[in-house]
Design a protein that fits this description.
By secondary structure, this protein is of the alpha+beta class. It has five helices and six strands.
Length: 159
């Protein structure tokens, strides 16, 4: 039994309705349910409804792409700034304090594996903010010097 009109599915399929969008007459089972209407069916057929939903999703993404990317950058920057502040705000080797060149470094190496385990840099920054041990703040120059001294660079295979 069809809940909306108390008819069987065969009887309901015989009832016809005109789609408001494409102006074609279709059986009632070609329309989605909607309790607010008298016929308990939407004004537009299923195929027109799906086309309009796809278009809405596409335009929503286009309209909000800039907002989402700006919000993501702001969140990333705030998390990074908190992590840098937690680690003292300057390089522990040379005292350099320009935030643009400071990097979170793993004291005993293993940064690539930590990055893979945590999924992204946000995870590392959150760990620093939570005062997990094993992190230090180095400027970019000191960080590369430390990597070279400790032989932490991954070996590249040249073909």
């Amino acid at each position: 039994m069809d809940i909306s009109l108390g008819l069987s599915q065969e009887q309901n399929a015989l009832l016809m309705k005109i789609c408001y969008n494409c102006r074609t007459e279709k059986p009632m089972n070609e329309f989605y349910f909607q309790d607010a209407t008298r016929s308990k069916r939407r004004r537009i057929c299923k195929s027109c409804y799906l086309v309009s939903q796809r278009a809405n999703v596409r335009t929503y993404g286009q309209r909000h792409r800039e907002f989402r990317s700006r919000a993501g950058r702001t969140y990333y920057q705030c998390t990074r700034d908190k992590a840098v502040e937690t680690l003292g705000g300057k390089c522990i080797r040379c005292g350099f304090a320009d935030v643009r060149a400071l990097q979170v470094d793993h004291v005993n190496g293993g940064g690539l594996q930590d990055l893979r385990d945590r999924g992204n840099r946000h995870g590392i920054y959150r760990a620093v903010i939570a005062n997990e041990p094993g992190y230090q703040l180095l400027c970019a120059n000191c960080n590369w010097i430390k990597k070279a001294e400790n032989n932490e660079q991954p070996r590249r295979k040249y073909v």
